[in-house]
């Protein structure tokens, strides 16, 4: 910079460029400062929204926990009610059944054919009610029992199930084969129920004049075992795959196949209580495969 003749400051072209550059920088700084302020306000708004959403999520989680506790309490009370009701109903029903059978034995053929028919209906009804109450009692007991965590060889469990089913298997001439089965952590009584119910179903729902063939297998799949009970029976249509696991649901009349409709519900409850899942694969007229998973003792 320099002064002119009157003593005023005079600027060169270079000085003017420098000043303009400084002014531009100051303008850019002011613009950036304003943009930063806007960004800060936006962030504060986002944080406020986040706090609001966080509070909503926390309230929702608290409500969910409360509902879960209430549902667990309700299920426990329902299971206890079912247990007490079925247990207390057994004794009077047993007495009714006993006296009905005694009456049938003493007076059958002494009145008339209609009386004999009505008496047979009453005896059959009392027997079916006993079976239903016994199944309901077994189902409700599952909610009150914790499965064990001890090592359990499934081959031994299947031996127990086959021994219990020996008479029924001999009657149909069923052929039961199996691959080597694993060792798992489970309750032996509950797992015996599962295998007994599945093998009994495979034996019962066989095709006419076709000898039942039942095969048990196990395949390791990562942290779990996939077990299968396969048969060559009548099969099930796909639209009924989910229905068969619902308690008291039946696909056939009692005249076709006897039963209470509780066995597969027990299987489902037992497997799920052991941390597994159960499902069905079937083709009508060609056979059925019940498959279920159980946690392996250790990861390979």
Question: Could you list some keywords that capture this structure?
Answer:
6 helices; two-stranded antiparallel sheet; elongated; alpha+beta; 300 residues; 2 domains; Heat Shock Protein 90; five-stranded mixed beta sheet
Give a structural overview:
With 300 residues, the chain is of the alpha+beta class. The chain is built from 6 helices and 9 strands; from the N terminus they run ββααβααββαββαββ. It has helices spanning 13-107, 113-141, 154-164, 166-172, 188-204, 263-273; strands spanning 2-3, 9-10, 151-153, 175-178, 183-185, 213-221, 224-231, 278-283, 287-295. The protein has a 5-stranded mixed beta sheet. The longest helix is centred in the first third of the chain and has 95 residues, at 13-107. It is elongated, with a radius of gyration of 37 Å.
Largest sheet: 5 strands, mixed
- What is the domain tally? 2
Sequence of strands across the biggest β-sheet: 4-6-7-9-8
Percentage of residues in strands: 15-25%
Strand elements, count:
9
CATH topology of the largest domain: Heat Shock Protein 90
Morphology call: elongated
Instruction: Output the structural class.
Output: alpha+beta
Query: What is the terminal separation in angstroms?
Result: 84 Å
Mean pLDDT, all residues: 78
CA-based gyration radius: 37 Å
The helix count comes to 6
- Secondary-structure element order, N to C: EEHHEHHEEHEEHEE
Specify the CATH architecture of the largest domain: 2-Layer Sandwich
CATH superfamily of the largest domain: Histidine kinase-like ATPase, C-terminal domain
Helix content: 55-70%
The poorly predicted ranges are none
By CATH reckoning, the class of the largest domain would read Alpha Beta
């Amino acid at each position: 910079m320099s002064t002119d003749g009157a003593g005023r400051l005079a600027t060169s072209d270079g000085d003017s460029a420098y000043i303009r550059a400084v002014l531009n920088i100051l303008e850019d700084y002011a613009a950036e400062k304003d943009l930063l302020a806007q960004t800060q306000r936006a962030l504060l708004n986002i944080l406020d929204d986040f706090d609001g959403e966080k509070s909503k999520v926390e309230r929702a989680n608290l409500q969910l926990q409360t509902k879960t506790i209430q549902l667990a309490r309700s299920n426990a009370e329902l299971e206890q009610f079912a247990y007490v009701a079925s247990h207390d109903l057994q004794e009077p029903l047993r007495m009714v059944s006993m006296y009905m059978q005694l009456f049938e034995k003493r007076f059958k053929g002494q009145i008339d054919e209609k009386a004999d028919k009505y008496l047979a209906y009453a005896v059959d009804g009392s027997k079916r009610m006993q079976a239903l109450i016994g199944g309901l009692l077994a189902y409700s007991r599952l909610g009150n029992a914790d499965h064990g965590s001890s090592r359990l060889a499934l081959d031994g469990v299947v031996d127990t199930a086959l021994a219990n089913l020996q008479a029924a298997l001999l009657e149909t001439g069923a052929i039961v084969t199996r691959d080597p089965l694993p060792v798992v952590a489970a309750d032996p009584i509950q797992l015996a129920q599962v295998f007994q119910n599945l093998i009994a179903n495979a034996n019962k729902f066989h095709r006419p004049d076709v000898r039942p063939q039942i095969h048990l297998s196990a395949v390791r799949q990562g942290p779990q075992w996939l077990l299968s009970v396969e048969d060559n029976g009548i099969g099930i249509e796909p639209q009924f795959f989910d229905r068969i696991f619902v308690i008291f649901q039946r696909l056939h009349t009692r005249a076709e196949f006897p039963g209470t409709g509780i066995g597969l519900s027990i299987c489902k409850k037992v497997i799920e209580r052991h941390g597994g899942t159960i499902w069905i694969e079937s083709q009508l007229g060609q056979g059925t495969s019940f498959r279920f998973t159980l946690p392996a003792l250790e990861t390979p």
